[in-house]
């Protein structure tokens, strides 16, 4: 930090303050984690200075031998860890990985017949007229994905996102009675809509998805099954999700982030079968800017960590802790979407406490519990205020929390929410944004959390001076 302080002290201060904040709060954001010192240090070096458009051994720039080494290593670890035929480790984020996947499915679809007609050997040889035909063919493709309020992600075909502009979209939801995925309803929607891409994967669904059944549905209607495992990649890597629940053997293409349950650097990745590998490798420069060599190096380190036996133990503890958290909330009267969890996250419907998701999120933050508000299925409060709070265990499990401690976290959460009331606007009108936490609760919760957090120091040995 001293080196940074010499140039821009405010940045050094913000970095230091972030560590202080993370050390002092209960981080329950389901998409966050704490990367290892090895992963963090691998990101801060001169590999960042290199341009390396292209792929390993086929670059548009000279002098890429060391970037080739780290990219090849990251891809090899990814293939071995997930049992994938092909891995592409360049995407800068999960959204970028999804864009690469969309591009490759679309390009494979339209390029081949158009090329055959044009008698050309490569997409670069297409004439303007060929491109016109391609554009028209690309313009009316369809995607079927999980709805946002059932737990799907914005990139799964929703209007405000580029995916909703590239594809005509329809979504499948969950059974209103149980909150669970209804495979018969997904199959019926697929038969009627006949999508090019059937997308499975979620940001806020607390149960498992049977990818074998999703593949059967895709095959029946001639769709490509794409799985976005951004949230649960760590559980796949740690062999907690196997058989029908491991997407890799069932999907033609799998995308992920590397920074959530996988516990790597911030970034994305694509795994695919041989039929898509060539298109996927054209991700940069067709869809992505130059790769981030320092981040690919950190992906290699994180994936090497995930191949160790300790990571399997970690992944199992993430799920055990989520169950303990769910049970702790449920037994204290909390209303959980689907009644519980099978993965790393819990979706708490806070309308039972008379609060909006926004009010609950703010009250918890005031007490040092960091979560995020999230829509619940058929949410009456919409996507901004919401009626839910999403909580996940990957970060606290990395810190060393166990099941008994998660029960205590459930108690802290319940205490805050049951002692929070909705606030009013300055003119006295009801507000979905403002909250009032009873006097003394924030202090009480912070002191109880400090005891828990003190048992599991974060980045021990890192001294801010
Ligand atoms: N896909 C899913 C399922 C996600 O939950 C997220 C992020 O929350 C993303 C993609 C996007 O990842 P990123 O923020 O790295 O672009």
Automatic annotation (TrEMBL):
Residues 7-125, 141-411 form the Serine hydroxymethyltransferase-like domain. NCBIfam families: PRK00011.1 (NF000586), PRK13580.1 (NF010094). It comes from the Bacteria. It catalyses: (6R)-5,10-methylene-5,6,7,8-tetrahydrofolate + glycine + H2O = (6S)-5,6,7,8-tetrahydrofolate + L-serine. Pathway: One-carbon metabolism; tetrahydrofolate interconversion; Amino-acid biosynthesis; glycine biosynthesis; glycine from L-serine: step 1/1. It is found in: Cytoplasm. This is Serine hydroxymethyltransferase. The modification N6-(pyridoxal phosphate)lysine is found at residue 260. GO terms for molecular function: glycine hydroxymethyltransferase activity; pyridoxal phosphate binding. Catalyzes the reversible interconversion of serine and glycine with tetrahydrofolate (THF) serving as the one-carbon carrier. This reaction serves as the major source of one-carbon groups required for the biosynthesis of purines, thymidylate, methionine, and other important biomolecules. Also exhibits THF-independent aldolase activity toward beta-hydroxyamino acids, producing glycine and aldehydes, via a retro-aldol mechanism. The keyword Nucleotide-binding does not apply. The record marks 259 as: Plays an important role in substrate specificity. Keywords: Amino-acid biosynthesis, Cytoplasm, One-carbon metabolism, Pyridoxal phosphate, Transferase.
